[in-house]
């Protein structure tokens, strides 16, 4: 029996047809059965690839779970670890010697906020290339200050610092939750515990309309003085502390020394209850605020994702999915000559120049370890054979601000993954890497769109140019289209989760063959 798959263009709409031929295509008498796969969706989605509505929704819902469990970079890494381990990857430590062999699947973390995972091809030899997808785990966020306690007019407030370039006005009047890591003393040990208080704890109240008549046309807002979330009233805090015999009374040392002096009893009590520890065990912490409303599907046709941190958890999720699927769904890893890798860094929103950021040597050190045992120049040989996808979100055209986009480069929803190009190299994309990704996309039936910023508009950047400058790996910048980037709650569409995952999976499977066919 022979099975053929055809893709036909009918009424400007792609239809997939499978033909089963029996007993043999060359035989004169043969039975043919034609099966038409679901194609109705291309009517909605235009003349491109047509994943089934179920597949699209399933992928999007899994993405929602990923976001809802990942309120901080620490939780992103924890969630990635869980998914990798479920797919047969195991943890190795930077602090130990490695003995990585072909077909091994491993991951390494740094600062609990960056993670690099890789699957070594069955045919890998040091000096062969690396197929890498890079993204970032951090998003603009409010972070609890080292000394956060504030009391004003009966309110207990929490001082916060702005991390990254957030649209801070969007944080007003939101139900905010808390998440991060807390360092705890346990006997003679110091342990880092992840904390996720998954309910509304804080709120930054806006000023009501009646008190801002003179400001209505121009809302003025100061990041230092107007961004002070309320966590409790002084009255309740006092009552609760007495009732619960809280062993945390500010010793009023100047400057404050322990955590009880630095933070309100309300906050310390919350941490103690959540982690089942005493105030004196809390040594220090990094706590981030986030929207308490879970990520959700939206729109009449449930075709949107309304969620916090799409930038860049979308790319992180698709990278994890692409890698784990490419390594488990097929046995293509056996014949793979490359190392398939994802690198999810922290601190992109502040410029990447940190130990866990893309500006660090983290990736280089890992790549070099994987080149040991080859020729003396195995690492140098491998770099030009490799590819790096710098995956980060792109700007969809805005219904009311379409003039912000260059007329011929206006990414739309459901129209595919966006390739980002910039002549001034704010994006690392080149024609050579674009050709590769177009080949991959053709194989995976994933539509693509192009983005270039207007000449009179500033251009954002990504980890792409940093990585490619450091390592010399041919790089492409791409990502899904979204709206409201850097708002507390952003918006994208569901098909991009499916498409981006399919593209990443296909990149791992197809790149070595495409590379071998390229002549420059
Ligand atoms: C460790 O992770 C936290 C949380 O994302 C971040 O604020 C900090 O900058 C990271 N440290 C380093 C050295 O990368
Ligand atoms: C956006 O809204 C403004 C104000 O209503 C209007 O003047 C403008 O024409 C709109 N722009 C577009 C591109 O729709
Ligand atoms: Zn980003």
From TrEMBL:
Any single GO BP term: proteolysis
Record keywords, A-Z: Aminopeptidase, Hydrolase, Metal-binding, Metalloprotease, Protease, Zinc
Catalytic activity: Release of an N-terminal aspartate or glutamate from a peptide, with a preference for aspartate
UniProt keyword annotation of Metal-binding present: yes
Cofactor: Zn(2+)
The keyword Disulfide bond is assigned to this record: no
One GO CC term, this protein: cytoplasm
UniProt feature coiled coil, ranges: none
Pfam families: Peptidase_M18
EC number: 3.4.11.21
InterPro entries: Peptidase_M18 (IPR001948), Peptidase_M18_dom2 (IPR023358)
GO molecular function: aminopeptidase activity; metallopeptidase activity; zinc ion binding
Family that this chain belongs to: Belongs to the peptidase M18 family.
Oligomer and partners: Tetrahedron-shaped homododecamer built from six homodimers.
UniProt-recorded name of the protein: Aspartyl aminopeptidase
Species per Swiss-Prot/TrEMBL record: Ridgeia piscesae (Tubeworm)
High-level lineage: Eukaryota, Metazoa, Spiralia, Lophotrochozoa, Annelida
């Amino acid at each position: 029996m022979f099975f053929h798959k055809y893709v036909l263009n009918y009424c400007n709409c792609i239809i997939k047809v499978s033909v089963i031929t029996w007993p043999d295509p060359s035989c004169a008498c043969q039975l043919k059965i034609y099966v038409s796969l679901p194609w109705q969706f291309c009517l909605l989605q235009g003349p491109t690839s047509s994943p089934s509505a179920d597949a699209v929704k399933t992928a999007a819902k899994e993405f929602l779970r990923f976001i809802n469990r990942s309120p901080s970079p620490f939780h992103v890494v924890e969630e990635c670890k869980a998914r990798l381990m479920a797919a047969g990857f195991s943890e190795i430590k930077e602090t130990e010697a490695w003995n990585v062999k072909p077909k091994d699947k491993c991951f390494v973390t740094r600062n609990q906020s960056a993670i690099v995972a890789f699957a070594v091809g069955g045919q890998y030899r040091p000096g062969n290339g690396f197929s890498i997808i890079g993204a970032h785990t951090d998003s603009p966020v409010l972070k609890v200050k080292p000394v956060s306690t504030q009391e004003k007019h009966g309110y207990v407030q929490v001082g916060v610092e702005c991390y990254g370039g957030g649209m801070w006005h969007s944080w007003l009047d939101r139900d905010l939750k808390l998440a991060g890591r807390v360092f705890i003393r346990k006997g003679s040990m110091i342990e880092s515990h992840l904390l996720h208080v998954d309910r509304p704890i804080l709120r930054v109240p806006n000023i009501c309309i009646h008190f801002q008549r003179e400001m209505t046309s121009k809302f003025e807002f100061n990041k230092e003085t107007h961004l002070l979330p309320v966590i409790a009233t002084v009255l309740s805090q006092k009552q609760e502390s007495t009732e619960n015999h809280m062993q945390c009374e500010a010793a009023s040392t100047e400057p404050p020394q322990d955590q009880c002096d630095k933070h309100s009893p309300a906050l310390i009590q919350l941490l103690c209850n959540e982690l089942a520890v005493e105030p004196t065990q809390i040594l220090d912490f990094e706590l981030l605020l986030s929207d308490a409303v879970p990520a959700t599907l939206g729109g009449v046709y449930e075709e949107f994702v309304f969620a916090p941190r799409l930038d860049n958890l979308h790319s992180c999720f698709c990278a994890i999915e692409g890698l784990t699927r490419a390594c488990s769904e097929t046995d293509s890893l056996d014949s793979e000559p490359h190392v398939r890798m994802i690198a999810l860094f922290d601190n992109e929103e502040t410029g990447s120049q940190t130990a866990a950021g893309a500006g660090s040597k983290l990736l280089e050190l890992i790549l070099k370890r994987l080149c040991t045992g080859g020729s003396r120049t195995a690492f140098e040989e491998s770099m030009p054979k490799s590819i790096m996808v710098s995956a980060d979100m792109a700007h969809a055209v805005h219904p009311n601000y379409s003039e912000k986009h260059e007329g011929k480069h206006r990414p739309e929803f459901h129209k595919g993954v966006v390739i980002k190009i910039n002549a001034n190299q704010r994006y690392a994309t080149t024609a050579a890497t674009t050709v590769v990704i177009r080949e991959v996309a053709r194989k995976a039936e994933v539509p693509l769109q192009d983005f270039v910023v207007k000449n009179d508009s500033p251009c954002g950047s990504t980890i792409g140019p940093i990585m490619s400058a450091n390592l010399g790996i041919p790089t492409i910048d791409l990502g899904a289209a979204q709206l409201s980037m850097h708002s507390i709650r952003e918006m994208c569409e569901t098909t991009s989760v499916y498409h981006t995952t399919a593209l990443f999976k296909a990149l791992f499977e197809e790149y070595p063959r495409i590379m071998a066919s390229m002549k420059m």
